[in-house]
Records
---
Amino acid sequence: MERFRMVFQFFQSNTESVANGICAMLTLASVKMYTIFDFNCPCLPKYNVLYGMGVMFIPPVVLFFVGIIVNKHSVMMLEEWTRPTGKRKKNPAIIKFMFTNLIQRAMVAPVVWILVTLLDGKCFICAFSVSVDPSRFNGLPNVTGLDITRVLAKVSCKEDIIFQNNTSRKAVSRYLRCWSQALGWSILLFLIILAVVARCLKPCFDHAAFLQTRYWSNYADLEQKLFDETCSTHAREFARKCVIQFFESMHEEMCQGMILPLDEEDDHLHGITSRKQVNELLQAWYRSKPDLDVTKIAQRQYRRARVRVTWEGDQNKGRQAFKPNGHSTHTDV
Amino acid sequence: MLALPPFMLFLLGFVMNNNVSMLAEEWKRPVGKRRKDTAVLRYVICSMTQRSMIAPIVWISVTLLGGKCFACAFSINVPLEKFGNVSDHRLSEIDMLRLLAKIPCKEIFDGHALHLPVVENNSRSGRGTSKVNMSLFRTVQAFGWAFLLVTTILAFLARAIRPCFTQTVFLKTKYWSHYIDIERKLFDETCTEHAKSFAKLCIQQYFEGISGEIRHLHQQHRPLHNSKDSDEDGKDEIEKLRGVTDQEDMNKVLRTGTTANHLST
């Protein structure tokens, strides 16, 4: 009982901690990817918005799908959703709970990327420099042959020659960075408040149903793991018996009429006792693998186990009937 | 650089996967008493391919996002009209192509022949590079992200759609492919145990054979000595010696053992 409880706790904590660990790793990976990403704004009116918004939103989509793919709960949820009802009716609350958990964990890395992008400000400046009102900024360079949109598009390119000895580029850049950081901090504040409210108010709404749903979704996860483990143990035992049955059948074939009684517990030879027999056995293993049926050996072992239990039971009865003081104490079982 | 290393990584993924030999054996074995299940072979091939594809995809993504490969490959195809007034150059076509091919090599590229705009400092690396080069980088990065997005969506669809179809077949093939792997290991283990027992009995048989000869010799020279000793000393210790009790006899045993190996018990 104690062992079962320890195993249960290990599995329960293990699944969630693995999922949380993967989520944390993806978040760190997204921050690292942003820091090493080589951001080069095109500084052309039509391409700035595409590039800026592309860098802000395409990596989060990739991170979101990766977060779903690496999470085992996605497969579990789909299997629970698509399984036939059979003898166990389906509970849509469990599927909803699994889906919510999955989406929450998968959204962390993309949101962190977007926040880091906004707090850094480069993408925002690149994308929206052409949308700024030029009349707010004095001293923008007046270059013949280039309209004001093209000039504003070059704000992100500080090396460009038209902004040499001109401080208006920095003014526009700071203005846009300010907006970008304000937006970033506002989104962060909103998300934190949302998380706090959700966590605090959750117990007020049907907490009992939530506890049940959480229990049964954990149960489904553990049941799947234990089923896989049991299949694995079964396959191992099946394979062991199949191999022993093969050895014994080869022994029967080779020594027709001279079959020696085999003691399965101690004898690893299984009746194969010469070089010729070993070679024939190895050839037969390749040429003709045995059929996947271990009924014969399983039934024989079951019969032997029953005989052993009956014999030990009889021994015990005999001991009880003859106690040291000489009186027989026959008891009915 | 874009095609060869991913292909090599893909092959390496196959080579290092333990299931390759299992797959080959299962494919080539004669049918015998156990019919072959092609679904199991397909399942093993699919799972091996999926695992082997990860390294090449990462390589291709990193190469594209880095941008150097494509910039090197496609620098001669850059449309120069986008980068300012480049129409009035006096270069022949071959010289033009040679010059364009040098674009990724910042140390030897001279853009002044084509009046190409030059940027003094790259924001990330702090080295001088041309606008043409950076435009190539951006195009390549866009390809990289698009490739990564498409691959991720395909992987997601493959994982999401599978439970909707053939879930029972999947469970069966998963069980039997795991079984085949375990059976191979257990057969090897059983053969190892068999070999150990075989060797033990073989050596025991050999010692018993040789000690019979030696006892016979001893009894001819010293008929009473051994029976007295076996009563006084521990019987187990005497039995382990198997009648070999002096240096000369042991040397004889070792000499005979190396010249004649009998492989049957």
---
Amino acid sequence: MGEFKVHRVRFFNYVPSGIRCVAYNNQSNRLAVSRTDGTVEIYNLSANYFQEKFFPGHESRATEALCWTEGQRLFSAGLNGEIVEYDLQALNVKYAMDAFGGPIWSMTASPSGSQLLVGCEDGSVKLFQITPDKIQFERNFDRQKSRILSLSWHPSGTHIAAGSIDYISVFDVKSGSAIHKMIVDRQYMGVSKRKCIVWGVAFLSDGTVISVDSAGKVQFWDSATGTLVKSHPIANADVLSIAVADQEDSFVVGTAEGTVFHFQLVSVTSNSSEKQWVRTKPFQHHTHDVRTVAHSPTALISGGTDTHLVIRPLMEKVEVKNYDAALRKITFPHRCLISCSKKRQLLLFQFAHHLELWRLGSTVATGKNGDILPLSKNADHLLHLKTKGPENIICSCISSCGSWIAYSTASRFFLYRLNYEHDNISLKRVSKMPAFLRSALQILFSEDSKKLFVASNQGSLHVIQLLEGSFKHLHAFQPQSGTVEAMCLLAVSPDGNWLAASGTSAGVHVYNVKQLKLHCTVPAYNFPVTALAIAPNTNNLVIAHSDQQVFEYSIPDKQYTEWSRAVQKQGFHHLWLQRDTPITHIGFHSKRPMHILLHDAYMFCIIDKSLPLPNDKTLLYNPLPPTSESDVVRRRTAHAFKISKIYKPLLFMELLDEGTLVAVERPLDDIIAQLPPPIKKKKFGT
Amino acid sequence: MAALEDEFTLSSGVLSAGPDGLLGVEQSNKTDQFLVTDRGRTVVLYKVSDQKPLGSWSVKQGQLITCSAVCNFQTGEYVVVHDNKVLRIWNNEDVNLDKVFKATLSAEVHKIHSVRGTEPVLLFKEGAVRGLEALLAEPQQEIEAVLSDGEVIRWTKLFMVFRHPVLIFITEKHGNYFVYVHMVNSHTLSKYTLLRGQEEKSVIQSFTASVDRKFISVMSLSSDGCVYETLIPVYPTDPEENQRVVSSLLLRAVVSGSAPSGVALTVLDRDHVAVLGSPLSASKECLSVWNIKFQTLQTSKELPQGTSGQLWYYGENLLMLHGQSLTVIPYKCEVSSLAGALGKLKHSHDPGIQVMPPFVNWEASQGDGLGSQHAEQPRRILRRRKIEVSSQPAVPPSKQLLTTIMKDSEKHIEMELRKFLAVKTPDFHAIVGDLVTGLLGRCQVEPSFCPRNCLVQLIQTHVLSYSLCPGLMEMAVKKTDVQLLQLCLQRFPDIPESVTCACLKIFLSIGDDSLHQAEIDMESVFDYGDSVQGDNVAAPVDVLQNGFSPEGDTCLSCCQEVPAKPQDAAAATPTCPVTPQRAALLNAILHSGYSEAFLLPHLKDIPAQHITILDWICLLLDANFTVVVMIPEAKRLLISLYKFVKSQISVYSELNKIEVSFRELQKLNQEKNNRGLYSIEVLELF
């Protein structure tokens, strides 16, 4: 395969935001996750836990609650006092509505999914009716003395439990009046805390209310009498979150110590019908506060300050003990935050509120495998571009020549022209962007930097011709009639003739840029596309899906290539299919037409199509270089997949030229170092 | 915990129980039914749950039953022997014993044995053994003499060992005891001489035996009041030879040897024996259950009307003659658990021990008065009929009584109340509640009115509960009437924790002199020496130990061995701060239903001088566990536990070391890997 010089970059100072809420939707098997910066992500648990959609964050929109309602509509509420509904097709905010109760701390949908209840800072609990296109305020419940931090609806819809500071109220929904007030003990292990915050409540159909609080207790209350039934002290710190399974036979709580406890309703003795809640399993997958938990029928889901989303399948609920039963820890977004200018060896890093432009260093030395070469020139931080306004950046791109930078927020599109004069760099914003270019989901420059392709959230694709310092709108490919699905991934052929675009589900469309018309649509596939690229010369479109399948489709022939058919016939190596992060980027180099570069977070692979495919008996990944093996053995074991796991977690990888790679790593330790210190716990108590 | 439930009496009208008691009680083929044979001419079949006889058969005038009747479990027929040699077999349909099957045998029968799984076995007075079928085939067959002259059968029992009947009988000749083990099927007989140690002078008064896989454990109760155990192999090594077996002390001084009507001993289960007889100091006879493993008295019941010194145990029922009537005391031993010991299983320790269900069962009371809880019910029904016939008042007696309560003197009320209580009216619960409310109402109006005796009577009806008359305990608390409080604690199932705590405070703070005057029910501190009662610091010399320790009678061992009964500890440890009266009161608290979680917050207000008492209670509880670890069976467990803990500690310390080493290695590794934020490396892909 050969030798590469690898620019190993660790200065991308990316820190994911902490997870604030998770909400699981049983009908679609999707998980909504909100982060502290207001970002909302949608994970498709049926599609190998792929993050298929996201809504960019907003500085003032800190979400405190997230919930699904009837018809798979998604709502969030936060400390700005607004209830927000998301448009899951167009990937934007449908509307935001002030609840007029001050910051909103909690929100829950009624069991039927037709009503929303929010708990506010001023102690009010407000009921909203969900209409087909909006929500409508219906009435207030009896106002409480302090903020409502948690809410739970009785499965029959007749009562609700509301957790506040030092007490839990039970409301009758019909009358809106509080029928019980259950005082929570502030004491913990003899130490009286100033306040006891009820972080979470759950109302079970038998009338039991389960509460979790800042004194480290999980308590069971009888809502009919308003009495404490049982108390489990489980942590020395706050218990922050609770989620109950639909069957009400199991629930999960998360603590500020990073522990997740599983409680199950088990028989008191082996053959008695009397059951009681028992703390069965502790899980320590987090280092920091577990701010939120969810309970899917087969897994416990947790997230918190340490930014990991952890999906822990319950072994007893998993029918097939395959790789899906393994623990998933999702840390990095499943989309590319980095773009690269091959000609000028520049990297553009996308952060929530700024962009960074870096120039790679250089060396004149050579070496053998594993050597670190002395730098003749170090990497330079060229540019720090801060956005205006509170909105997060959705996407960004740098042109191959390095002279154009474009990025977009939810409401504004920015295009910059860069001029390089020796070591000086000047930046000029291209003004007067047209109104239809308000918001982009994906931006791409053509290889010759003469065209700009923008996927807008209305489903249309704009083709813009770039001139020196200005632009011209050439065409807009409109979505097929009836669909408003946004396109999230774009790929353009190096000759600039073909543009491929993929949405979240509708398949991949290929457009002829010269003739400005739809060329063909790649046959639909069950799993979402995670990365797209068009190979030079051959114009083969390579598509990676979330189930780890990779297809090669010939655009001129409008059919899958022979190689792709051969791969499908033989099937991918089982270890390849068992990888748990999606391929986020595909690259080529024009001088190596047989090679495809793909990478996920933990490996990169160069597929050499000229070599035989590996079968399940072949060793897919061999980290050790061949030493004493004869050429015969080497030839026999050589296969198409050249895998390296040296760089991880790998956020971006690209072939700069024939023998040069750039790898952007983001070590977890560097992220942890930027988080607040966790609560110290002794590992082996003696 | 082993426990005796409330007794009930089987109507004894048809039986003529003489001063020597009954001839025998045997099981019938239905679990609930027993054949009772008196020393005259009558056999009665009782159904225990109905408390009434199902059938009664008598032999002709002039004949005398000499062996207690048994049931042939294989045919369902009954077998009895009268006039030593005449065998009668009949079934339920037969009315006259004179007309049923008759066989005259050639030798005198000592006893017929019948157990499930085999035919009845007859033991002749001369020691020969025959199965019933073989005997019936040839009734006049010759019966050999096994025993020597002057050798008398004292006790006999039939076991099933691995589905083979084994008959054991013990004979006495000139103060020497011999044990015979007869394998009925193989007709092998082994004889053992029972060697007794120092206790040779004493007379064995009662035997009982249980069978293990290989050994028959014969326990005997001697006239010195101690229980001895002898192990006899089921399968003798050499049946021909006369072998010797040694008896060893099992329990020391459980009864006084000089009981007027004799003593009886029976094995209940592996760990418990029941002893009938008078305790050392008290004159009244008692049925006590001892734990032979812990050498502790588990429970006891006074039988003031005296017994015949006979005790039978079948199924879960202990049967004995109490006075003139046949009394059944159900015995239950639920497996105790640590959770139970900690008070977590508040109500699970057999609910049947309470005479009344925890809460008033209104449905039952509307039917026929008080259901079947009262032993003397049949008699009462008769009496009630009589009274009803004689005085049919125009006004209901309850109304009359209520008016009496409002106006009349205490004495008169008491008399009327007694009359009223003798008759059980249908809505008894409600009336008793009304009466208490009436009495309390008058108390409030008239401070001088103090109907204590009436209240005591009413509480003892067992139908009151705290919720039925909440004022009662409040009044008793106000008046510091400890006797009333103790009664309430014993009888009421639903006392709130705060009231329990108030009682505890009174019990702890009341002066000793006032305690001496109060009539406190001392049953819970089952008493050994009156000297203890008089003075709380008794000389330990006078106190007989409960159990023995072969290592020597150190004071330490005795306080550890008698933890459950506070007065024992009081006697053994001279510094015990609690008088028996106070101990009885504290026991009432400990026996009432409370949960520590609720009681503990109240306990924090207890003044300092009472803390010692609480410490002492804690010590008692600790001692209980000490006893557990002192028993020989626990030794191996303890050793392995100790080893386990030791290995755990070393594992943990090693883990700690490994953790530290790993951390250091990680640091080194990081330093090695720390190539800065940017480097250019050479990578060769193979």
